[in-house]
Amino acid sequence: MKVLILLGLVFLPMLAHGKVYERCELARVLKRNGLHGFRSNSVADWVCLAKWESDYNTKATNYNPGDQSTDYGIFQINSHYWCNDGKTPDAKNVCGISCRDLLTDNISKAITCAKRVVRDPSGIRAWVAWRNRCQGKNLSSYIQGCRL
Ligand SMILES: *[C@@H]1O[C@H](CO)[C@@H](O)[C@H](O)[C@H]1NC(C)=O
Ligand SMILES: *[C@@H]1O[C@H](CO)[C@@H](O)[C@H](O)[C@H]1NC(C)=O
Asked: So which residues are the signal peptide here (predicted)?
């Protein structure tokens, strides 16, 4: 009993928080999945974007009262256009996925959907945090020390 309670204390917060990527680990996964140079964005652009959108947390969600949509996961992909969460009015689900699939430790679906997002004319500028925190900045610190 005591042991179970202790195990619960140790493991439940990990479940609630999901996987939080380490900066260089994320950079390597993004590169391995073909994001370096994709639509002329570098791995550093994506790491910077993930830093300021989710702080590298795969379980991050944020509700937008304006259109009643929610942003999901490490890239904070929005349920109005890109995924289906079953509760967003007038949702398009362009990526053809459940928004829950954007909250898993394995970010391969989030990466596939992010590639779809940047195929639109606004490209990576679709992400407000990228425009505010990464655009036009020296992003070398985001991949500094990473074995890429
Ligand atoms: C992540 O999932 C994809 C398929 O959805 C799979 O091909 C890949 O091997 C998985 N990556 C890891 C690290 O488990
Ligand atoms: C970006 O910053 C790094 C480290 O501070 C520096 O070495 C590099 O020269 C800078 N690049 C540009 C284009 O300013």
From this structure: 1-18
Give the residue numbers spanning the domain of 68. 23-143
Instruction: Tell me how far the alpha carbon of residue 43 lies from the centroid of ligand 2, in angstroms.
Output: 16
pTM for the whole structure: 0.89
> Based on the structure, what is the number of domains in the chain?
1
* DSSP assignment string, 1-68: -HHHHHHHHHHHHHHHH--B--HHHHHHHHHHTT-TTBTTB-HHHHHHHHHHHHTTBTT-EEEETTTT
What pLDDT digit, counting tens, does each position of 7-27 carry? 444 454 444 568 999 999 999
Q: What is the CATH number of the domain that holds 80?
A: 1.10.530.10
Give, for ligand 2, the residue of 45, 134, 138, 142 to mutate: max count of ligand atoms closer than 8 Å to Cβ: 138
